[in-house]
Amino acid sequence: MDPTATATKISPNVGITLKVKRAILSRETPYQKLDILDTYDYGRVLLLDGLIMLTERDEFVYHEMITHVALVTHPNPKRVLIIGGGDGGTVREVLKHPNVEKIELVEIDTEVVQSCLEYLPEVSHGLKDPKVQVLIEDGIKFIESRQDMYDVVIIDSTDPIGPAEGLFETKFYTNVFHVLRGEGIMVTQSESPFQDPKLWIRIYQNLSSVFPKIYSYLAYIPTYPSGLWSFTISSKVHHPVDDMRAEYAQKLSSMTRYYNPEIHKSAFSLPNFLKMELDHIA
Amino acid sequence: MDPTATATKISPNVGITLKVKRAILSRETPYQKLDILDTYDYGRVLLLDGLIMLTERDEFVYHEMITHVALVTHPNPKRVLIIGGGDGGTVREVLKHPNVEKIELVEIDTEVVQSCLEYLPEVSHGLKDPKVQVLIEDGIKFIESRQDMYDVVIIDSTDPIGPAEGLFETKFYTNVFHVLRGEGIMVTQSESPFQDPKLWIRIYQNLSSVFPKIYSYLAYIPTYPSGLWSFTISSKVHHPVDDMRAEYAQKLSSMTRYYNPEIHKSAFSLPNFLKMELDHIA
To answer: Span A139-164, mean pLDDT?
Structure first.
């Protein structure tokens, strides 16, 4: 790899390297360092504090999987709240559900939104849809003052260091519980259970102390640490496999590149080494 | 990442970097360059021609998944042939099946076997089992002269460059077909369908011209290119999901860290972008 390559650290001892065509943007926002690079194999890449947030080549996996499992499980999601996700990829996927009437996106860093609108239009274009309201606020404070409003809440956060730390804590999850309607479902990205099983378990435990039903599921995201990524659904009522709307899922998958009804179900099959981690806390 | 790190190329433009404690072995065999390194996060690592073949931390995924799906599908596997796999990881997994009476392993490079016996004992120890016969030969020639002998044939090869190239061709697959008994099953590692979908499709097509039933399945292997890895089962009679011995799979999973009956089934669910690749050739 030559000096025009960029390396991003997965841990102090593991890294991934992508060869860069050119740097598009590099700036310090009030919250984080923001870079957009153009790479040979993965297209444009958004980095926050030196960590890969998305690449044009594999972002579809993350954004489809954080969105569709919850929205296909809920019987009739009309109002959706996204915390984080300023790049707009999750909004783009939520907009594939015609029943959804209103999407609020609460992003703390306006420069993430602006930069993605300018340099990652394929990801961000949904942010300009009339159904979408972008609010530049702290998501933690935003939900404190609200109650019984949303069918689905999606936590599309960075890692639990810096501004996103509070988005992984019990207090925040309690507020999400109260902001959800009766059949409400929350989904959060829950990090790599291969790279950091303790963190995955901590998220699961924090959620378990608030919600009656917790289910973790997996997807392959090549440019995320270890490639094995998890999401966790917390539900008041519905089971993400037993209650999935199978026919609707099939229709939806004419618009997806990763998600389909079989993937929806299979994603909940955990390898033994992860089942064992969950057994320890059961 | 400091200069004691080792970088391995996934493509000319993508790499993975593991920080190294020390080099254990580095030599040129008649077939390839062989290195064993000790790393901080992934334990000992075997590299052939600079590419990661296995790491102590994640080799269980590859070895369990190349082995158990086929051996749980076959109703009564007694005789197993492994082509390649000189590290012994696949042998270790096949030995978990008590019905298996004899395992022949045909590895072209004796130095792979010797080095793994010496420096990777947790992976290779099965090679010393009395049920196992290690033959240092070219696997392509080995099966040419045999017929109707094996219940399961496992192709545990390196990438299709250099000595392993012939292990991905129709002529070889035809010989495997003939070396299998009536209910016989072949399984091969079939590369990363994310990193190189054309190669994955070529393997699938070559197999389809020989076997009546072909099924590709997936597993997460963090240190392999893109992390999304595939295996392909070619069968004369049996369907790997419909005919899996579920109760037996459940028992087996007391000895596995990745494989279990749900994973066996789920692994065959392909994301849309891969289903579309297969639809193009159907």
So the answer is: 92
The closest CB to that of B271, out of A1, A11, A263, belongs to A263
Q: Are B217 and B269 in contact (CB under 8 A)?
A: no
Please give the structure tokens belonging to residue B234: 């070619």
pTM of the model: 0.95
- Residue A2 pLDDT > 50, yes or no? no
Give the C-alpha separation, B254 to B267, whole Å: 19
**Record: contact B272-A266, CB cut-off 8 A:** no
A229 vs B223: CA distance, rounded Å: 14
pLDDT tens for chain B, 282 residues: list them.
Answer: 344 566 676 777 888 889 999 999 999 999 999 999 999 999 999 999 999 999 999 999 999 999 999 999 999 999 999 999 999 999 999 999 999 999 999 999 999 999 999 999 999 999 999 999 999 999 999 999 899 999 999 999 988 887 788 899 999 999 999 999 999 999 999 999 999 999 999 999 999 999 999 999 999 999 998 999 999 999 999 999 999 999 999 999 999 999 999 999 999 999 999 999 998 886
Contact call for A13 and B14, based on CB within 8 A: no
- Complete edge-to-edge strand list for the sheet that includes strand B150-156: B132-136, B102-107, B79-84, B150-156, B180-189, B228-235, B213-220
Which region holds residue B126: left if phi is over 0, alpha if psi is between -120 and 50, else beta?
alpha
Put simply, whether A9 touches B (Cβ < 8 Å) is: yes
User: What is the interface pTM, i.e. ipTM, of the complex?
Assistant: 0.94
Residue A145 tokens, joined: 């003052």
Rounded Cα gap, residues A73 and A215, in angstroms:
12
The Cα of B178 is separated from the nearest Cα of chain A by a number of Å equal to 34
Establish if B9 touches chain A: CB-CB under 8 angstroms: yes
Is A262 touching B (CB cutoff 8 A)?
yes
Residue A47 has pLDDT above 90, yes or no: yes
- Give the number of other Cβ atoms within 10 Å of residue B241's Cβ: 16
Q: Are A14 and B41 in contact (CB under 8 A)?
A: yes
User: What count of other Cβ atoms lies within 10 Å of the Cβ of residue A182?
Assistant: 8
Please report the domains of chain B, with CATH numbers, ordered by start residue: 5-54 (2.30.140.10), 59-281 (3.40.50.150)
Query: Contact A13/B39, CB-based, under 8 Å?
Result: yes
Between chains, do A263 and B275 touch, taking CB under 8 Å as contact?
no
Q: Compute the average pLDDT of residues A109-137.
A: 98
Burial of B281 (0-12, 13-18, 19+ CB in 10 A): exposed
Give the bridge partners for A112, in sequence order: none
Q: What is the 3-state secondary structure (H, E, C) of B26-54?
A: EEECCCCEEEEEEECCCEEEEEECCEEEE
Contact A105, A132 (CB under 8 A): yes
According to the model, what pLDDT value does residue A3 have? 40
For residue A55 the two structure tokens come to: 């690449």
Mean pLDDT of A126-146: 97
Which positions of B are annotated as active-site residues?
156
C-alpha distances (whole Å) from B99 to each of A50, B25, B235, B249 are 52, 37, 20, 14
Rg (CA), chain B: 18
